[in-house]
Amino acid sequence: MSDHVGHGTNVASLLAGGSRGLSVSFANIINTKIWCSERAVNSRVSEAIADITADHRINILGARESGFKGSIINLSFGVSEAGATLRTAIEDAREWGVTVVVAAPNM
Q1: By CB neighbour count within 10 A (0-12 exposed, 13-18 middle, 19+ buried), where does 20 fall?
Q2: pTM greater than the 0.70 cutoff
Q3: Out of 39, 88, 89, 91, which residue is the most buried by the measure of CB atoms under 10 Å away?
Q4: Contact between residue 31 and residue 51 where contact means Cβ atoms under 8 Å apart
Q5: How many Cβ atoms are within 10 Å of 49's Cβ, its own excluded?
Q6: Is 53 exposed, middle or buried (0-12, 13-18, 19+ CB in 10 A)?
Q7: How do residues 90-102 score in pLDDT, each as one tens digit?
């Protein structure tokens, strides 16, 4: 899987990067591909969010043993309309304690 533009890779490295010049982080970056041609497709976005939420659920239930702290989903793109499936996926993620961050419009 490749990041043709580099935006997702840049954002992930900023979120998971170490501090004070250290390149050590305990973040687990999950790479998901949601773009089809030139746009994000709601069904692929919803599927990716559901997959990340399922992984988060498994990790949070075993957090005492693993030291797992939580999950962040960064949605740094826009969609023309958030359908019911996408809204449900985001609500489910939030209910399980996943922090969901969205981009502000660049207008």
Answers
A1: exposed
A2: yes
A3: 89
A4: no
A5: 24
A6: buried
A7: 999 999 999 888 7
